[in-house]
């Protein structure tokens, strides 16, 4: 086929992720050209929740795919709305980076070492709810900005710490700034965190074929369970959600272990549930665990709503 036009946002994280996928495709013998796409989320100074969640990043790129301006797009899977986009498909989910969150704190401190009253910045209701639920007396401050900006708040002394995805730091070569990798027993990551989604039009058999070799079966199964859980919860509650699925060795072969969190923004309500099920049925596992959370009270939690039109778009 001819050159694959790969659409990317301009942020350093987006271009790094797109370049990584471009490199994989080139190694597989394809020609790739990067095409920059500007999105509303890149130019607006408003809080991301106010302009409709992180889905604003995905939608401009998706328009370019549907218009035929680009052939392939790379998203952080956790930023991709769970509702399928008609005409588009996730052609590959490459092998996942570490899915955990990290702390970037002043003076090399860990969560347990931060004094009461320390100010921790995050724009994510999921992180805010779980940090509050730790009971460490941390003050959560809403922030936004790209990864470099957010680390800057700590190095410039404006905040005591920020919480970020380890995968983002790793891709940007800034892992050295992390002062603690946060155990998922304390803070569960966003569904899909650390994984990429390579998206293309469903009718482009040539592109689907070119991209297929990038797919990693274990990653796809895990994120499918996490996103099925998120999707089912979105229908019934607005609570912040964390989820992590891991492939484990069961007695009769591979199984999928799924852990999830739903809670209130202030940390006063905290639901944690887990379930293990067949590797081959990730959707059912995610839906079942979501139902357990809803039955146990997630439906009654007042979460952070974004806008009426963007209920499915989370700032994770
Ligand atoms: N919400 C923004 C975003 N989208 C993807 C990543 C990092 C990479 C990933 O999680 O795959 C980040 C930064 C962060 O949350 O720290």
TrEMBL record:
Tell me where in this chain the Porphobilinogen deaminase C-terminal domain is found: 222-294
Q: Where in the sequence is S-(dipyrrolylmethanemethyl)cysteine found?
A: 237
Q: Name one Pfam family in it.
A: Porphobil_deamC
Functional summary from the UniProt entry: Tetrapolymerization of the monopyrrole PBG into the hydroxymethylbilane pre-uroporphyrinogen in several discrete steps.
Q: How does the record describe its quaternary structure?
A: Monomer.
Give the protein family. Answer: Belongs to the HMBS family.
User: What protein name is recorded for this chain?
Assistant: Porphobilinogen deaminase
Source organism (scientific name): Terracoccus luteus
């Amino acid at each position: 086929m001819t050159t694959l036009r790969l659409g990317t946002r301009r942020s350093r994280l987006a271009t790094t992720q797109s370049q990584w996928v471009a490199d994989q495709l080139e190694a597989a013998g394809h020609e790739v050209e990067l095409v920059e796409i500007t999105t509303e989320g890149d130019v607006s100074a408003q809080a991301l929740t106010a302009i409709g969640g992180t889905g604003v990043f995905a939608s401009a790129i998706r328009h370019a795919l549907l218009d035929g301006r680009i052939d392939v797009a790379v998203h952080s899977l956790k930023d991709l709305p769970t509702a399928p986009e008609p005409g588009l498909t996730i052609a590959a989910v490459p092998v996942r980076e570490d899915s955990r969150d990290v702390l970037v704190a002043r003076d090399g401190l860990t969560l347990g070492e931060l004094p009461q009253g320390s100010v921790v910045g995050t724009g994510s209701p999921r992180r805010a709810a779980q940090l509050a639920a730790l009971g460490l007396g941390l003050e959560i401050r809403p922030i936004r900005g790209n990864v470099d900006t957010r680390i800057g708040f700590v190095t410039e002394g404006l905040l005591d710490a920020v919480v970020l995805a380890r995968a983002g730091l790793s891709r940007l070569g800034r892992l050295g700034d992390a002062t603690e990798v946060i155990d998922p027993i304390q803070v569960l990551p966003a569904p899909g965190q650390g994984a990429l989604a390579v998206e293309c039009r469903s009718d482009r058999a040539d592109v689907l074929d070119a991209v297929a070799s990038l797919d990693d079966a274990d990653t796809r199964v895990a994120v499918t369970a996490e996103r099925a859980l998120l999707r089912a919860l979105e229908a019934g509650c607005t609570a912040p959600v964390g989820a992590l699925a891991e492939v484990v060795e069961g007695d009769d072969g591979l199984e999928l272990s799924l852990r999830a969190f739903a809670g209130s923004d202030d940390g006063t309500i905290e639901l944690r549930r887990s379930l293990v099920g067949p590797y081959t049925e990730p959707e059912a596992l995610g839906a079942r665990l979501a139902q357990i959370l809803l039955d146990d009270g997630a439906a009654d939690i007042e979460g952070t709503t974004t806008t009426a039109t963007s209920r499915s778009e989370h700032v994770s």
